[in-house]
Amino acid sequence: MFDTVVVATDGSESVKRAIDVALDLADRFEADVHALSVVDASEVDASPEQLREELRTALETTADAAIATVEERAEREVTTEIRKGRPAAEICEYAREIDADVVATGTRGRHGENRLLLGSVAERIVRISPVPVLTVRQLEPTGDDDDTPSEALAADA
């Protein structure tokens, strides 16, 4: 059913659970895993000109760390990519290019809770994605760090 899973990550706290759920899904279906992070070009362009290069470097470092997190958590090979542009558009384009079966993402990203139900990037991905989108919300901390993705899914129901 799922041969290729894209994990869209920005390195935020809310995406950590989405990574675990996506990797669990990939393991269950023996699917290929692709980790994708997008450096938000509009964020760089909106910054003062004298800070743009420093901001670009910081965002690229964050993207590298986000991708590394997926690789560290995976028990299989992960294809990785970092792109520059508008995150939702780049994620959807990447899914189209590799013929992905599903895109997994957190519901809140680095930009915080500026939407009622979904973060603005997650909402846009859901609206424009050519493939199904698995949005995974971060659960409230329970104090139990041993929750597996399956247990987390059951708790979410």
From TrEMBL:
Residue span, UspA domain: 1-137
Pfam families: Usp
Highest taxon listed in the record's lineage: Archaea
CDD domains the record matches: USP-like (cd00293)
SUPFAM superfamilies: Adenine nucleotide alpha hydrolases-like
Disordered, as annotated region: 137-157
Classification via PANTHER family: STRESS RESPONSE PROTEIN NHAX (PTHR46268), UNIVERSAL STRESS PROTEIN UP12 (PTHR46268:SF6)
Family named by the database record: Belongs to the universal stress protein A family.
Record-given protein name: Universal stress protein
Organism: Natrinema zhouii
